[in-house]
Every structure is written in C-alpha cells, then in structure tokens.
Write a structure and sequence with these properties.
The relative contact order is 0.16. By secondary structure, the protein is mainly beta. It has 1 helix and 15 strands. The chain has an 11-stranded mixed β-barrel with strand order 1-2-3-4-7-8-11-12-13-14-15. A 4-stranded antiparallel β-sheet has the order 5-6-9-10, covered by helices on one side.
Length: 247
C-alpha cells in the first residue's frame, strides 16, 4: 500500500510539472559589499536570493566571500567561495519499459559548496569597455539522507553526493554615457562542462552609481539550458535587482 501511495503522489507531481514546462520566470535579488585594502587587493561579501516557477517558489539563497588581486591596469585575478542552500526540484523516473516506477525524489532543501577561480581582462575603446572573464567553478553537493524513494526496495534512500566542474566564459560590453549616472551593459556567458556547453546566459542591464560608494543594478537575463543534467534548471527569463556598497 505504501508503495502504491508513493507511486500515485509521484505521478501526480510529474503531471503537474509537465504542464508547467516551458520558459520559466524568476527574480534574483543580490546585495554585497566590497572593501579596497590597497591599490591591488580587495575583499568582498555577497548574499543572494532567487525565485522560480513564475516567482511563486523560492529557488535558493546563498552567501559568499571573495578576494581580488589587480595584476595590471587591464588584468586581475580573483577567488571565492559560496555557500548555497537550494530548493531542489522534484525528480521521478521510470524503468526501461517506460511504465514501472523506478525512483522518486520529492522537492527538498539541500546544501552545496562552490569554489571559483577567475581571470579577467578589460580594455577601453572611447567610452566603450570590453571585458572577458574566464572562471573555473567547482560545486560539491553532499549526500542527503532519506530523500529518494526506491520502488524496488520500498524504502527511502540517500541522494548521493557529487561534484561538478564548470568553465564559465563571459564576454561583456559596457558604455559610459557622458554626464549620466546610468551606465548600460550587455554580456553573454557560456557554461562548459564534461558534455560541452550545458548552458548559455544572455544579460542586459544598467548600473546606477551614487557618490561612488553605492552601485544599484537592474538586469534582465535569458538562460538557455542545453543539458538535462544541470541541477534541474530550465530555460528562464530572469529579472535581477542588486546593490553593492564600496568602501
């Protein structure tokens, strides 16, 4: 009986998910601070909250630390760590016959640890600025006990821990409008993993600087997911609001 109940619940959840497939819409809220230690060194802290399912579902929140070293006027290197707390999406799969249930993982909150190392370069051309950032990113998800239901064993099992390496390549163009505090920018970022380009992110936005210490940003992103194994992400329209304090 317990097995049948779990199967029915899983199928209902899968049906609802199928109806909701397509381009999602979410909000990203970011807040951060940056401290300049010297002409070359700086430290930063950041926090972020994301939504999905047309903003009706909390997707994740995170906090992070980063450090940056300016090699030259046009080149810098940085490293950082993020603590992520994710609302993992429901997963359900069938056996090879396409009918019998195999395993079901309801939606649950879980931890991930992310480390990154970046090399960035930029050059000015008139009032335009062209920037390229290459970032290696490693994310580790610890095992989560009792989150997956195995229909063969008729028991709850653990979601296995796993690590993932990604190379993120971002090209950005920004423009400094004379006598205006609003500076527009646009960028494209490629996410490369073992299977190739798993995700492409396009972004346009505008920065507003107030008294050099306060930076407000409004952004629009479109995320095109090419892989079926990219943390259950889907194609999404994303609106972002952020604030950074520099001191």
């Amino acid at each position: 009986m317990k097995r049948h109940i779990c199967f029915i619940v899983a199928v209902l959840g899968l049906t609802l998910t199928a109806h909701a497939q397509g381009n999602d819409f979410g909000m990203w809220y970011e807040i951060g601070a940056e401290k300049k230690l010297s002409s070359k060194w700086s430290l930063g802290v950041e926090g972020e909250f994301r939504t999905r399912n047309n903003t009706k579902t909390a997707d994740r929140w995170s906090v992070g630390l980063s450090g940056e070293y300016k090699i030259s006027k046009v080149l810098k290197v940085s490293a950082g760590y993020l603590f992520l707390y994710d609302n993992n999406m429901e997963e359900f799969d069938l056996k090879k016959d396409g009918f019998r249930p195999n395993k079901w993982t309801p939606s649950y909150w879980g931890v991930r640890h992310r480390f990154n190392l970046s090399l960035s370069g930029n050059v000015d051309w008139g009032r335009f600025n062209f920037a390229l950032r290459e970032r290696w990113q490693y994310t580790y998800r610890p095992a989560a006990d009792g989150k997956k239901y195995d229909f063969d064993e008729e028991a709850w099992t653990s979601v296995r821990g796993k690590g993932k390496n990604v190379l993120r390549s971002r090209f950005q163009v920004s423009y400094d409008i004379p006598h205006w505090k609003f500076d527009p920018f646009a960028n494209m970022e490629l996410f490369n993993d073992d299977e190739g380009i798993s995700k492409t992110r396009y972004q346009v936005g505008v920065d507003y600087k107030y008294k050099k210490k306060h930076v407000f940003s409004l952004t629009y992103r479109y995320q095109d997911v090419n892989s079926n194994d990219d943390d259950s992400e889907v194609n999404s329209h994303l609106l972002g609001l952020s604030y950074k304090f520099k001191f």
